[in-house]
Each structure stands twice: as structure tokens, then as C-alpha cells.
Write a structure and sequence with these properties.
Elements: E1 16-20, H1 24-30, H2 35-56, E2 60-67, H3 75-98, E3 102-106, H4 114-126, E4 134-141, H5 143-160, H6 170-174, E5 187-190, E6 209-212, H7 222-233, H8 243-250
Parallel strand pairs: 1-2, 1-5, 2-4, 3-4, 5-6
Helix pairs in contact: 1-2, 2-3, 3-4
Length: 251
């Protein structure tokens, strides 16, 4: 039986993959460990999947690393996550540069502790000239926060006369989102067996193909990624049209 990677049509790759990296804490608890143990091992999965996407030629990869709701977790876990975040970024920037990967961050950066914000700013600058895979980290992010922030900014521009309400279109609205400049994801993967999108890219996922796997994030590797991509390529993306219309347009 040929390896999964050979089943992937490189001409029909999803341009943008988004992943909800779920299950770190439960993975650790199942092993009788503290939750941070799972987050620590989840870093290896991040490294492996980023590498896999870069090797395939995927152009954009968004990872849901920390939501605004995660600030409500027990303080020791939050502190540990922030420390792990900074340590990981510091170690991975040389690897990102070696592989021509550019880092981006979306989310409410004002909520991050100063030491984490400083480390992120430095990483963004150090990778800013890379033009390969665009790695987008969603940190202190939630879609409702993003949409409210966008509405507030639009209201301010309308009030100041910079924006005419009659000219607001979907394209104009997109420019006020955190993801302005990035295409919408074509494939969204959620690990750990949960069937929800947890306040993640609610506007951008309107026509995204959703893929759910019971695999916990620390166990998720390239083969799991390939399986998701093969599943994606076996689907018919209709965007509200009929299957027959899509078939005729492909001829």
C-alpha cells in the first residue's frame, strides 16, 4: 500500500490550512501527568506539522495556540504556557529562517505579558524577509473579539469621515479583520475529537472544509496531516452551487 503522501495531488493542495490544536491537557492527564506536560509535547507536533506543510508547498498555516478564553484557566497553567511560548519562539526562530518561513501573529497582543510581547515582536522582525510558508499564530485570539474590534474600527473611520457606510462591502470589511492580507482557510483541522470551532475564525471559515480527528494534538504528525489533505481532496467544494454545476465548470 503506497504511503499517504503519494496519494496527495500537489496541484490541488489547500492554499491555507488552519488547525485547532486541541487535546494537550487531556493527553497529559491520560498519562498521569500535569497538563503542562502535554503542552510541552505539543510543541513537537507544531514543529512537525509546520515542516510538513512547508515540504508540501502549503502557502499559509494558521495555528490556534491560545484563545482569549484560555486566560480563565488556572494561573499556573497560564504562566507555564506563556513561558513555554517565549522559550519555543526563541528556539525556533533560527529554524524558521533556515526554512524561509515567515511568522505572523493575530490576536489581542495587549493581553500578553510584556516579556512575551517583546519576544514575539523580535521574532516577527527577524522572519519578516522570508517569503516561503506564512505561519500565522493565533494568540490571545477569539473571533468575537476580532469582529467587535473590526466593527469598532469601522465605526471610528465612519465617524471621522474616512469611511462612507454606503461603500462597505465584504472586501472592505475584510480589511478590518486580523486576517486582512491572508486568504480564507480552505481546510480546518481540529484534533482530539471535539466537534466545534471554539470561536476560531468564524467569519473566515464560511466555506472552509472541516476535518475532525480523535487524535490528540501531541500525537498528531505528518501522516495525520496527509490523511486530512487526502480527505479534503476527495470532497467536492460547491460554494452553494449544485454538484452538476461544479462538474460542468471543471470540464
Amino acid at each position: 500500500m503506497p504511503p499517504l503522501i503519494e496519494k496527495i495531488d500537489k496541484t490541488r493542495l489547500p492554499k491555507h490550512i488552519a488547525i485547532i490544536m486541541d487535546g494537550n491537557g487531556r493527553w497529559a492527564e491520560e498519562k498521569g501527568q500535569e497538563r503542562l506536560y502535554g503542552h510541552f509535547h505539543g510543541v513537537e507536533s507544531v514543529r512537525n506539522i509546520v515542516e510538513g506543510c512547508a515540504e508540501l508547498g502549503v502557502e499559509f498555516l494558521t495555528l490556534y495556540a491560545f484563545s482569549t478564553e484560555n486566560w480563565d484557566r488556572p494561573q499556573p497553567e497560564v504562566d507555564g504556557l506563556m513561558g513555554l511560548l517565549v522559550d519555543t519562539i526563541r528556539k525556533e526562530v533560527p529554524v524558521l529562517n533556515k526554512n524561509n518561513i515567515r511568522l505572523h501573529v493575530i490576536g489581542d497582543m495587549d493581553m500578553l505579558p510584556a516579556f512575551a510581547r517583546t519576544e514575539l515582536d523580535e521574532a516577527l522582525e527577524m522572519t519578516s524577509r522570508n517569503n516561503g510558508l506564512r505561519l500565522i499564530m493565533a494568540l490571545s485570539y477569539s473571533s468575537r473579539w476580532e469582529l467587535v474590534t473590526a466593527a469598532r474600527r469601522m465605526g471610528q473611520d465612519v465617524k471621522s469621515g474616512k469611511l462612507d457606510p454606503e461603500t462597505i462591502t465584504q472586501d472592505v470589511f475584510r480589511q478590518y479583520l486580523s486576517t486582512a492580507g491572508f486568504p480564507d482557510p480552505e481546510l480546518m483541522i481540529r484534533t482530539s475529537g471535539e466537534f466545534r470551532i471554539s470561536n476560531f475564525l468564524l467569519y473566515q471559515l464560511a466555506y472552509t472544509e472541516l476535518y475532525f480527528t480523535p487524535t490528540r494534538w501531541p500525537d498528531f504528525r505528518k501522516e495525520n496531516l496527509y490523511e486530512a489533505i487526502v480527505d479534503f481532496q476527495n470532497r467536492q467544494r460547491r460554494y452553494g452551487k449544485t454538484g452538476l454545476q461544479v462538474q460542468q465548470e471543471a470540464i
